């Protein structure tokens, strides 16, 4: 299959862009697949109410079919039409955070096929905060099932060129809307449990949810990397976001971390390996490895969220064998950053 790539600027949706979005919407209504930007990461979209489309999504990603998809909507009435009821908590959270990087899990009704929910009676729903995504949803009939637009197991794409790398030839269209704003996938909160529970940390933090809802719990497999329990979001059990080289996270004081990584770099480079270091603006100049990249600024951790997946992909492009990364605070957006980094590293972390 030939994959068409169209460029659309979110801030400049002119007539040509609108035509392209109409065509993209028709592809989805006809059962085809389109990759598109959201504010979190790129999504691989198909008609959420068409079981064949969901099957195609799993096939294009090489994703296990017990891993449910998120349904993207553009308004509250469309949400109400596919769930048994809209819980009070969902209305409050939607008021506060939609459109935005928050996915809510509710009890589905018959309209949503089990192919989309991986066999579950619940459905994950979000309203993305991106004009291209919202217009595409409207043009597609209201419901787009969209996992991140990467091959299963690879870092989620935050720029269109990585959708092209993973999905070219497998889907009808890729919409290039530039680099996404946030860079990590949405926060997922389950509203079917007695106390709402965070199943995947993201830009919307536990504190922000608590401020709206009062009590909140967190799936403990997220915080405790040694937990052997099954995560409640099926997708969280898979090794994810994995770069091709080996990645190790190093935790300690700044000077301990720098000394340790420089020592390990020397050893690895002496044995002929290509080494990459994931540093920060504050520390970039202190490392001696062949390839050192800053992932952002510790003063503003959202810069780190924004660049993390891109930096992991860039190390793949440069065929790095071994990577060392600094560690981040496990609070605020840092919790989502560490969650993704630990998965990328297969939980390989050295505490000095
Ligand atoms: O930011 C995002 O959420 C992006 C963009 C494209 O919207 N999408 C995304 O989808 O990250 P994906 O498929 O890569 O991750 C969806 C996660 C998986 O871990 C899946 O297991 C979980 O959501 N999930 C989906 N439906 C669920 C359900 N009914 N119950 C529990 N977990 C669910
Ligand atoms: Mg994903």
Share of helix, binned: 25-40%
* H/E series: EHEEHEHHEHEHEHEEEHEHEHEEHEHE
Radius of gyration equals 20 Å
| List of distinct ligands in this structure | threonylcarbamoyladenylate, magnesium ion
Widest β-sheet, arrangement of strands: 1-8-2-3-7-4-6-5-9-10-11
How much is the average pLDDT? 95
Distance between the termini: 50 Å
The first-level CATH class name of the largest domain? Alpha Beta
Please identify, by name, the CATH architecture of the largest domain. Answer: Alpha-Beta Complex
CATH topology title of the largest domain: DHBP synthase
CATH-assigned homologous superfamily of the largest domain: DHBP synthase
Identify low-pLDDT runs. none
Q: Outline, from the CA principal axes?
A: globular
- Outline the biggest β-sheet: 11 strands, mixed
Helix count from the secondary structure assignment: 12
Number of strands: 16
Overall SS class: alpha/beta
Tally of distinct domains: 2
Beta-strand portion reads 15-25%
């Amino acid at each position: 299959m030939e994959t068409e790539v169209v460029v659309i600027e979110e801030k400049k949706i002119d007539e040509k862009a609108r035509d392209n979005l109409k065509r993209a919407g028709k592809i989805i209504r006809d059962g085809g697949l389109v990759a598109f930007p959201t504010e979190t990461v790129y999504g691989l979209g198909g008609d959420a109410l068409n079981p064949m489309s969901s099957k195609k999504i799993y096939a294009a990603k090489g994703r296990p079919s017990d891993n449910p998809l998120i349904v993207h909507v553009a308004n509250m009435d469309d949400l109400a039409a596919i769930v048994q009821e809209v819980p009070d908590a969902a209305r409050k959270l939607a008021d506060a955070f939609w459109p935005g990087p928050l996915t809510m899990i509710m009890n589905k009704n018959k309209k949503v096929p089990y192919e989309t929910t991986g066999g579950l009676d619940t459905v994950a729903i979000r309203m993305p905060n991106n004009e291209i995504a919202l217009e595409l949803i409207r043009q597609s009939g209201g419901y787009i099932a969209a996992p991140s637009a990467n091959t299963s197991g690879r870092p989620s794409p935050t720029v269109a060129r990585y959708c092209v790398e993973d999905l070219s030839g497998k889907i009808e269209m890729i919409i290039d809307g530039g680099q996404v704003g946030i860079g990590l996938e949405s926060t997922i909160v389950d509203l079917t449990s007695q106390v709402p529970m965070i199943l995947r940390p993201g830009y919307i933090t536990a504190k922000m949810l608590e401020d709206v809802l009062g009590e909140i719990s967190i799936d403990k497999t997220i915080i405790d990397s040694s937990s052997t329990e099954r995560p409640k979001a099926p997708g969280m059990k898979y090794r994810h976001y994995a770069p091709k080289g080996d990645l190790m996270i190093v935790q300690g004081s700044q000077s301990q971390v720098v000394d340790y990584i420089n020592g390990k770099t020397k050893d690895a480079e002496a044995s002929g390996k290509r080494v990459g270091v994931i540093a920060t603006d504050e520390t970039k100049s202190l490392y001696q490895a062949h390839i050192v990249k800053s992932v952002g600024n510790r003063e503003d951790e959202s810069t780190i969220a924004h660049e993390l997946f891109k930096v992991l992909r860039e190390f793949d492009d440069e065929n790095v064998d071994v990577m060392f990364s600094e560690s981040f605070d496990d609070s605020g957006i840092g919790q989502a950053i560490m969650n993704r980094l630990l998965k990328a590293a297969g939980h390989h972390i050295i505490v000095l």
